[in-house]
Amino acid sequence: MANANDIRRGNAIRYNNDICMVLEKERVKPGKGGAFVQTVLRNLRTGRTSQTRFASNETVEVVPLIRKKLEYSYRDGSGYVFMDTETYDQITIPEELVDPFKDFVVEGTGYDIVFTEDDIPMQLDLPPSIILEVIEAPEGLRGDSATNVRKPVKLETGLELNVPLFIKEGERIKIDTRSGEYMGRA
What we know:
Blueprint (H helix, E strand, L loop, with lengths): L1 E2 L8 E4 L2 E11 L7 E8 L5 E7 L3 E4 L2 E12 L2 E6 L5 E4 L1 H4 L11 E7 L4 E5 L3 E8 L13 E6 L4 E5 L7 E5 L5 E4 L1
Antiparallel strand pairs: 1-6, 2-3, 2-6, 3-4, 4-5, 7-8, 7-10, 8-9, 10-11, 12-13, 12-15, 13-14, 15-16
């Protein structure tokens, strides 16, 4: 158990019988009344974000989390199968954790997965950018060279996005996983 003042951004705490990640923390001392800690928490089970206020002297349970670097192998009927490259153990991650990010999950790529002490997967952390292959790209029209003209392409994961006209089928491009936008050729 820890004091609410002691929690930090990135800690996991038990709140309302769920494990929540502290996204933001601010200590507030109003002119009248006692100090409090204002936090933004993300429920790791549901993914919902909420603002929560704790009294400064309130105790919270800090939950230790374990990060493992796992390589995505394949998808089967029960979820997404990842492999620990050190022990070669295969771990199936539930679909509800990976589906929101499925457009950025590529075979043979390593991802950070957050587990509780009980080896229950809680969160998939994407790298800031990922390299994907263009599988469908229409030809740019001749003379269509106004600045910043884009065309839609389809990538190996099924993701569709707009890229500059010079990108062709078979090229590998870098995508920002936070915004889903084209960053450049790989």
